[in-house]
Amino acid sequence: MAAGDIHVLHVDDDPSITDLAATMLERDSDIRVTTRNDPEAVLDRFEAAEFDCVVSDYEMPEMDGLELYERLSGQFDHADFPYILFTGRGSESIAADALNAGVTGYLQKGGPEQYDLLANRVHNATDQYRAQVKADRYETVIDALDYPVYVVDERGTFRFVNEPFAAMTGYDRAEILGQPTSFVKPEETVQRAEDVLGQLLSSSGPDTARFRATIETASGDLVDCRDHMGVLPYEGESFRGSVGILRVSDEVPPPATDGGRVSEPGRGGDHVPKDRLLDALSDPVFALDEDGEFVYANDRVGELVGRDPDAIPGTHYSEFAVPVGGSGDCDLFVDLSDADDVDRFAAEQSVLVDGETVTVEGRPATLQGPEAVFVGTVRDRSDRQRATDRYRALFDNLPDPTVVTDFDDGEPRIRRANGAFERVFGYDAEAVVGESVNDLLVPDGHADGAAEIDRAVLNGERVSREVRRETADGDQRDFLFRNVPIEHDDGEVLAYGVYTDITERTAYEERLTALHETARRLMTAESTDEVLDIGLRAARDILGHDINAIHLYDEATGGLVPVATTECTDELFGEVPTFTEGDSIAWRAFERGEAVVREDVREDADVLNPETPVRSEMVLPLGDRGILLPASTEPGAFDDADRSLGNVLAANIQSALQQVEREQTLRDREQALARQNERLDEFASIVSHDLRTPLDLAAVHLELATEGEGDADREHLDRVAAAHDRMSDLVSDVLAWAREGVTVEDTEPVSIPDLVTDCWMGIQAESASLSVTTDRTVEADRDRLRRVFENLLGNAVAHGGDGPTIRVGDLDDAAGIFLEDDGPGIPEDERDDVFTSGYTHSEGGNGFGLAIVEQIVEAHGWEIRVTDGAAGGARFEITGFEE
């Protein structure tokens, strides 16, 4: 492909986008980009022939991308030209509308990988379109392979000639292609062809036309022909050129009559002027008298029979020609004197000349006077045979399976099949002659469609449609089937059927459909696990390989941890590895954010395990979240289509993970607000109830103090002070409880023994003792964890009896610690209530201490429970620490 061979028109109202797209696309040397920022201007100046592909934004001020496509299609009747929507607004409905309208592709804007994907889409769309155009033109000219055929483009330049045409002109095909028609046509013929073409192009003109034409050969000879001209199929409203089929004229003009006379029978040719006998023709030309003796023979006749042409006159034709398959005189030549209307008489017969079969064609003619002669020309049968051989060679070497069929009581039966038919369908080309095409190729469930095709062909209709057919070994494949019927004069119908294998294209379209459905399901997923499950199944089904894994980045390990794997992956690896920085192909792709395809991973120096059973793999980044990793035990298992589809799937998984994360954040916030509202409700209850008692007590004692005297007054004031202390403690605990959030933001490594010892120093407990046996360090909010231990230690001192012993140590069977005392413990039927705010059995207690403890523990992602201690007291166990 030449540099800049694909010309792309990019339409977007944002100049920065078109400039960026042009820069990114033109990194591919095959692509050159023209940009437009006004879709209305595109409609005014658009010429379909200028561009190979159109890329358009969807949302633009004047009109959207779909409206632009529809208007271009309607204005130029060019609905099948490559058109790709490249939009920043992703929508399932827009994608569906685009595909239903006939748009070639739909792609969302994004990072560099999306522009790489766009370049691939442009290549694929352009290649498919060009292949279809080429096939359409090829089909136009293949119907007349027995005759000279040419194709001329809209500028009057030869774009195709077949071998018979080249042979007729005496030039090589390469010499003719690219030349104007005047290269082999006199000016008069060129002008006549232009006039006829103008009639064909007029709205009221015919579809085809015949006219006389003259071809000037390389040697300067002029060949009189009939030109049967038609117009190539349009592309939009653009005229693409014409096709012509030439037939050398069957009419031989009468000899010139300038006063000369043909010699008398048997007298030789000295007296016959050669210019009277059309000796300018390049074919062998002769004249016989009514007795069958030559009166004239041109040089080509002499070459044919191996005689000096001047010695041939006076010789009977039977010395040179005998009937094919027999002996005696040829019955071609009749008694000319008995021909009532010699101008209408003509004859043709095959004869042997010097052992070679030739065809003699001729007609009676008269010169001045009553003499009659038979003027004939010789056409070498080998010319026709060569044309037939060329046709058969072309037929046999067509790249697509091709058959010629006739019809037996409506059933198509094979007359001839080419080599491609044999290779693709697996049947011997000679063995299938006479067999029913439908019995051989049509699978179950497709008989009605095949019968519909047969009826159309018998009605003289051309057929072009997608079909499914079955090979000899039972495989079913998809084909673009094109059938051209040819009806002979006797009413017999032959049909040329061509099967172009589109199985891969159909499979790709099915994979695209599955990808669209996957994108829809991913966008409705409600959890990370659901996204991973959908993505993993899609990778297996769409990319067609059972080995697949999704790795997400984990900050704690600093690596890509496998979070979702297929059953085949687990069976193959046992334990799927975690990829860490700098030691694998996977990490390199993740770090660079670029997809990597390895045809053989063992040839890559960064392969994690050189003995891996995996031979080829794709590493598809999921942004900064991780990678999708499809793989195969076979080398070279992934092609460009796999990479393109894989990139789109990975982008959809990444978007779905982001969406789930956003929605989870919203749910967490909603839950936090709900819990905060609950705490506010409880706070209001506490303020209205628990604070009322000490306030009432304080009010009563103040009233008594104002009425009494002496020590009694002092006692009342002490009670007021105690009530105030109780209210202060209550307010402090309520505020602490209300302020504790549901998550922990800032953490640091905290030594539990150091923190517990520090908290113990602030507890008023002269008769109590503390034993710490753990050396554990945890990641936590130091201040909030301090409150946990202060509350638990204070609770143990307050409820553990006289001189309690308090122990803090590691759990034996879990990642956690315990804090226990040897006091009376907590009854089993009350253990579910101890963490409820307001729960207390202590006089003067407010019931918030353990509620705060549970809240802080859960905010760290841990769990707490209460059970019996080793000495029968209360034991609190905190679990869920990371090891």
TrEMBL record:
Instruction: Give the matching PANTHER family.
Output: HISTIDINE KINASE 1, TWO-COMPONENT HISTIDINE KINASE
Residue span(s) of domain PAS: 134-204, 276-356, 387-460
Matching PROSITE patterns: HIS_KIN, PAC, PAS, RESPONSE_REGULATORY
Give one Pfam family.
Answer: PAS_4
The UniProt catalytic activity note for this protein reads: ATP + protein L-histidine = ADP + protein N-phospho-L-histidine
SMART domains, per the entry = GAF (SM00065), HATPase_c (SM00387), HisKA (SM00388), PAS (SM00091), REC (SM00448)
EC number(s) stated in the UniProt entry for this protein: 2.7.13.3
Biological process terms in GO annotation: regulation of DNA-templated transcription
Q: Which UniProt keywords apply?
A: Kinase, Phosphoprotein, Transferase, Two-component regulatory system
Q: Where is the PAC domain?
A: 463-514
Q: Disordered: where is this region?
A: 249-274
Q: What is this protein called?
A: histidine kinase
Signal peptide (residue range): none
Q: Name one GO molecular function term.
A: phosphorelay sensor kinase activity
InterPro entries per UniProt: CheY-like_superfamily (IPR011006), GAF (IPR003018), GAF-like_dom_sf (IPR029016), HATPase_C_sf (IPR036890), HATPase_dom (IPR003594), His_kinase_dom (IPR005467), HisK_dim/P_dom (IPR003661), HisK_dim/P_sf (IPR036097)
Domain named Response regulatory is located at: 7-124
Q: Where is the Histidine kinase domain?
A: 686-879
Under which main EC class is this enzyme filed? transferase
Q: Which residues are annotated with the PTM 4-aspartylphosphate?
A: 57
